[in-house]
Amino acid sequence: MVTENTAPLEDAAPAQTVEVEPTTTEPTTEQTFTQEQVNRMMAQTRREERGKFSDYGELKTRATRADELEQEKLTEAERMEARAVEAEKKATDAQQQIASAMIASEVKIRASAMGVIDPDAAYLLLDRSNVHYDAEAGVSGVDDALAGLLEAKPYLRSANRTPNLNPETGQPAQSVRLTADQQEAARLMGMTADEYAQGL
């Protein structure tokens, strides 16, 4: 049975044969080198390879030096930062000490003026939560704090409201009674009785 696929092709072109020329094997000549030439080539290759890395030592030295400089800069920066932090801390401490001294001074002066027997005790007992010091405005809140303290502890107030004026002993200044002759001497000298008494 003949099918379309198995039917002989009448119109097909006859198969062509391709002639392949036989390859001729010509003897190849191998190049040979003498030991001296091989040594020269090897030496040349080594020189070329060494030339590629000839500056390796210098580059390594430079890299090491750059790392050292970077570490020095970092260390210097860390030192400067530590110094800045320390200076800031000292400045803050100094400001606190100044504020504390100014508040203590103002409290003692005002307490003395208000007739407090012991201004040092008043300073220690005083509620300083509302007492503040500002470099420009000074100390504020002392009078209110002292008024509150004297209200809570009235025994701190002296019956004699004369402030302590005797800086040598720290004791209240005693009023000196002048005799009639001393009063006359003070009058002739143009002094008050208190001024004359201070000279005694």
Protein topology:
Layout: H1 35-52, H2 56-113, H3 119-125, E1 132-134, E2 138-140, H4 142-152, H5 180-189, H6 193-198
The gist of it:
The protein has about 200 residues and is mostly helical. It has helices at about 35-50, 55-115, 120-125, 140-150, 180-190, 195-200; strands at about 130-135, 140. It has a two-stranded antiparallel ribbon.
Low-pLDDT runs of 5+ residues are: none
Task: Give the strand content.
Answer: under 5%
Continuous helix count: 6
The SS-based structural class is: mainly alpha
Oligomer: single chain
Shape: rod-shaped
Main features:
2 strands, two-stranded antiparallel sheet, mainly alpha, 6 helices, 200 residues
What does this structure look like?
A two-stranded antiparallel sheet has the order 1-2. With 200 residues, it is an all-alpha fold. Among the domains are: 56-164, no CATH class; 173-200, no CATH class. It starts with 34 loop residues before the first helix and ends with a helix. The model has no long low-confidence stretch (mean pLDDT 77). Helix content is 55%, strand content 3%. Helix 2 (56-113) packs across helix 3.
